[in-house]
Design a protein that fits this description.
By secondary structure, the protein is an all-alpha fold. Helices cover 74% and strands 1% of the residues. It has a two-stranded antiparallel ribbon with strand order 1-2. Helix 1 packs across helix 12, helix 3 packs antiparallel against helix 9 and helix 7 packs across helix 8.
Length: 303
């Protein structure tokens, strides 16, 4: 005959559960409070800048020379440089990452998967400054053999190396999404005479599309916020161009350059750091909101 648990044991379990609940609440509160503090800091420090420079001129201007005379505060060259590198990185990462995910999820035996997957994930752990010097000292000289007009600092090498850096994120998340697709869908496709490649491309990938797109948007957000690679490899020329062989300057690279320079605190040159940071924050926020919409709109739930 079962006996009721002692009152002391029940009380201890309730106390432990309460501690866990409040610990999780505290962690969630710290995350939210940190985000709010960042937003408040960016907005507060940016207000004096926008009191002198109209927002419309800031967002639509095509010249960015805040540290030189005459001063120009058009942020489009920084946005264009950031997006140019991010697009190159995204195209590189989605091709290699998705192909790797399909191989690991559909073709590779378990033994090969256990070896290859950790090797790919090592790429995500390499310091970004190492990637930057790799792009500057190795990849750029190799690309100059193909493109003789390429200068030493360029968007192409920075974007390609950044694509290798974010590729494991797409590969890992996409593989997890593909493995979550029920085996019954694959068996049904095989029963209809589909080949392994057709099953992978026409059944598994569409079924896991929500997770794949979400991984791409997450990786692209990571690329937009990357600092050291674009600082070392892409140059420091705020140039509004679509030519990846030219030097550009990303928003993060400008923030680093100005924060390490001699811009006195409180001047408009110093306030540009927060204005550019606010634009960068809004861009990544929009991408994350879009990613959540994609996941909720196209994700499939299997019982």
């Amino acid at each position: 005959m079962a006996t009721a648990p002692p009152v002391r044991r029940v009380g201890r379990h309730k106390a432990e559960e309460a501690i866990v609940v409040w610990t999780l609440r505290a962690a969630a509160f710290i995350s939210v409070a940190t985000t709010i503090a960042i937003v408040v800091t960016l907005v507060r420090e940016s207000l004096p800048f926008f009191q002198e420079i109209p927002i419309w001129d800031f967002l639509t201007g095509t010249k960015w020379t805040p540290n030189f005379k005459p001063q120009n505060f058009g942020v489009l060259p920084l946005i264009g440089g950031t997006l140019l590198v991010a697009v190159i990185a995204g195209a590189t990462a989605v091709v290699i990452g998705l192909a790797s995910a399909i191989f690991l999820a559909e073709y590779a035996p378990d033994r090969i998967r256990r070896i290859v997957k950790p090797i790919l994930e090592v790429l995500a752990g390499i310091p970004t400054v190492v990637y930057g010097f790799f792009a500057l000292t190795f990849l750029t000289p190799q690309l100059q053999k193909v493109f003789p007009d390429m200068i030493i600092f360029n968007a192409l090498s920075a974007g390609l190396v950044m694509g290798l850096m974010i590729m494991p994120m797409i590969s890992t998340l996409s593989e997890d999404a593909m493995l979550a697709v029920p085996r019954s869908l694959r068996d049904a496709a095989y029963a209809l005479g589909a080949t392994k490649f057709e099953v992978a491309v026409k059944v598994v990938v569409p079924a896991a599309l929500g997770g794949i797109v979400a991984s791409f948007i997450l990786a692209l957000s990571r690329a937009i916020g990357e600092t050291m690679i674009v600082t070392l490899a892409a140059g420091a020329t705020p140039n509004l161009t679509f030519n990846p062989l030219e030097s550009i300057q990303a928003m993060t690279a400008f923030i680093v350059q100005t924060s390490l320079g001699e811009a006195p605190h409180g001047t408009i040159e110093f306030q540009t750091i927060f204005a550019v940071g606010l634009v960068l924050f809004v861009m990544t926020l929009i991408m994350n909101i879009f990613g959540r919409y994609v996941v909720s709109r196209w994700s499939e739930r299997y019982e």
